[in-house]
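User: Can you help me understand a structure? I only have the sequence.
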Amino acid sequence: MRLPGRVVVVTGAAGGIGRAIALAFAAEGAHLVLGDLADVEAVAGEVGRAGPPALAVRCDVGRGDDMERLAARAVAERGGLDVLVTCAGVDGPGLLAEQDEASWTRVIDVNLNGTYRAIRAALPDMTRRGSGRIVTIASVFGKTGGQGFITAYAASKHGVIGLTRALAAELGAQGHPGITVNAICPGYVLTEMGAATRTPDMVAGWSATSPLGRCAEPGDVARMALFLASDDAAYCTGQAFNVTGGMIMH
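Assistant: Let's start by predicting it. Here is the structure, written out as tokens:
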């Protein structure tokens, strides 16, 4: 067990990558506090069958007070906050010229500002105790751009990588070397997000760009998150790790 007794907060835990992370962490002995807008109780039930009972919290990463309430419940009901994984995210319309300001703002607010809000709420307990792991979920498009089709999403994920790197440097300079901050940059992951417009031909085309010949499953990302949350990654901070099957190599 790599996370016995560690208290882990996961935002966006109700499906896809967030659910996979919650289940993987539970199997390693973590005590999960799961946040999402809907269906988080169902995932908490699954987690409870895989490991220690989980706490389900209905919350919105678009609200700072919700994130403060999520962190406060972790501290009050589980005794602290050892790990934060920020999985909440949305995609949106593609071409910038066709995207109105409301849809642009929504993507940036959930993906980038939501990550900021969750981290800001978690930091007081981590800095008080002098230790913690923060794992953000960025994207391969945070390194390559959106190829002209998912501009707001790419911009938001570039921001998540920048936030991750800047915060890692900031915490070190402030005398908190026990708190690490790293990002995961998945490639194409076969989750509910985008499933409505995904076709077999698209999946085949994406798979062909990977030396491994396939797209990612949520569990591939969960295993990287588990590494970064564990003591094995104690000397990793400010990094943006690719989980792309070699689709990009930088």
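Now, to help you interpret it: The chain is about 45% helix and 15% strand. The beta strands are 7-11, 31-36, 55-58, 83-86, 132-137, 179-186, 240-243. Let me know which part you'd like to focus on.
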